[in-house]
Amino acid sequence: MSDLLPELSPPAIGFKEWAYVCDSLVEGVQTLILRKGGIHEGRGGFEWKHRQFFLFPTWFHTQSERLTWSPEGATSFPPEEERTSVDIDGFATLEQVWKVTDWEAMQAIAPLHIWKEEIVKERFAYDEESCLHVALVRAYKLPQRWTFPYSKSYGGCRSWVTLPEAGLDLAKEAVPALSDEAWNEAASKLRAVLG
Predict the structure, then answer these.
(1) pLDDT tens digit string along 121-176?
(2) SS3 category, 56
(3) How many separate domains does the chain show?
(4) Helix and strand tally (H, E) in the chain?
(5) What is the domain range of residue 150?
(6) CA 66 to chain centre
(7) In a domain, 1, yes or no
């Protein structure tokens, strides 16, 4: 077990994010997540409710057009409604969160993530409050891919889903996507801009 991971306990929580973004975290390409929130987040909007979570990949057929990076051998996805299984490769811990309301700050962190500027801007100015939640995370690669049946309870525009507890054992054996030195360097760059 990695000494970096905190003690894990049920329930197993999944954080829904574009599949290629999940891949970028597990492959150490980036160490942050941008989130506006889904329509089912409740009256208070999106919140980082969990300190540790599995990276639950969502299928969005045009995501490669909206990102500056995609994994080697990336393929297109069938429609979400045709999905029969979930494949999870990574786990993450939440290290720090900012609610960013300054567009210049969002522009300054652009080199640290894979979203194209027009997508970030679209999310930033989505409603009456121009802002994005920026989360610094530490990603871990599971020792093997975790595959389980897809459930309708995973669907919809929500960020958090409860997963089978079997994944907790895999998470205990996960290894960091980046070395301590590389992760600290990436974290320092983000903190230098956002404080």
Answers:
(1) 999 987 777 899 999 999 999 999 999 999 999 988 889 999 999 999 999 999 99
(2) strand
(3) 1
(4) 5, 7
(5) 12-194
(6) 15
(7) no
